[in-house]
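P.,

For your records, the input lines for the assembly:
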Amino acid sequence: MYDLPVQNLIDEFGRLPGVGPKSAQRIAFYLLKLPEAESLRLAKAIIEAKERVGFCEQCWNISEEQICRLCSDIHRDNDSLCVVEEPRDVVALEKAGYRGRYHVLQGALNPMEGIGPEQLRIKELIVRLSNEEIQELIVCTNPNIEGEATAMYLARQLKPLGIKVTRIASGLPVGGDLEYADELTLERALEGRRELNA
Amino acid sequence: MIVTQLWLIDFRNHTSTELQLDSGVTLITGQNGHGKTNLLEGLSLLNGHKSFRGATSESLVRSGCEFAVIRAQVIRHRREHLIEMKIVASGRSRVQLNRQIVKRFKDLSDTVSIVVFSPDDLELIKGSPGIRRNFIDEVLLSCDKKFRLVKANFDRVIKQRNNLLKQCRGRLSKELEESLSIWNSQFIELSEVIGSNRIQLVRDIEPLVNTFYSQVAGKEEQVNFRYETTWMDKGLDQALHEIQHEEVRRGTTLVGPHRDDVIIDLNNLVSRTHSSQGEQRSLALALRLSEHAYMAQKIDDSPLILLDDVFSELDEGRSKRLVECLPSAQIVLTSATGTIPVGIHPGKKLKVLNGHISLGENE
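Structure tokens returned:
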């Protein structure tokens, strides 16, 4: 329907997460209308990001350097390490005020998508744990079935190392209403109740 | 719970159908192939479950169209609700409740409860274990929100587990064995919840089925339910361990709630194989009546009853006794001949001709 370069552009946008065929078309036409300098700026930004950003060799978060900003920060707490699925989870935990170490698995166990333990950065994690002085490993994978499976796998793999392994709690969102929580979440929240200190 | 108004657009052979239902009994007549059952099917989808005819979205949409629309006005606990469902032939269907998007279709069950009686119900007794499992699960899904979440997780875990078993290609390496044991623990946890919920339901409906069976059959007989499972006694952990070799060989999960059965005994004989056709029919009706009674009690409301050409399959005595058993509820029934047993008094009669509705003569 379109000239080849236009169709190529639409197809490329269509592959992006969260972009459907209609949005892909809209973005493509917007770019074509843009002054050349502006669209080149976008192209350059993509190329630059791809060229300069890789993965941190220690925690596997995205990083411009071989060792990322967070790993090379000497002021951070070295006692605990959060294991997360994706780099964006690191950002979330940073916002929450966590100031320890991270390890990004780059996914979760998912046989349907062909992701087993070898596809995740688990070996790298085990190497790290024998080199670094970590007291507690906090498993912060998502509270869905793939995330739980990953957490359980980690717990079993790490048991011989004798490190304390904890799982992030699941329960009610702060500022939310009890009545809007789904039944399973509420059940977990009840199980994880704490004594109030008056 | 009452459905007051229904619109069907490009749904099966209904191009544009609008109808109002009686709060008591609505009778729909028309010749075969003109769209009576289609109309009931449209109504039945309002609780967000799959079609009772086992139809795919594609077959629900009128041929040549991209999507069908079902709209309905529902009154529950004196409050009016608007349901708008867009069924897409190839793609994601959507549903709105009072103009708000409903994430999971099955959550409509919180607003709409329906019990369908269809001629295929004989399969509940005669058919494979899967049909009985489905029956039990559908009842639980209709009135237990937590069960809905557990079942969704269970379906996902079993898919993942099956995928893993397929990846083995008949040989279990050490790595795959480790992964498998990880998925096992979630599989076991969810299976136990599903198993215990099913057993509780079976216990709850057994006395109901006994009462309704003797009423429909016109004689006192003993109906017993047995939840048949190969894993509960020894524990799923042990059962999985024993069958692991075979599971790896066949690349699929061979033990668990998805393989259980509910055996229904009539006078201590397995109804599936030993009961007469007539007894099986009475049992199937007793199951549906019990489903209604159970749900009515759980949700504190009377679910809508859909009777799809049920009386044509029954002899006079059974028809009469079924009518006596029908609870007070909104009822929509179809009939090809238009003859219905005494005791049913339609407040409204509708005729279907080629997917078009017209008002029949009212009593």
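Two observations worth noting. Chain B is about 40% helix and 25% strand. Residues 174-217 of chain B form the longest helix (44 residues).

Regards
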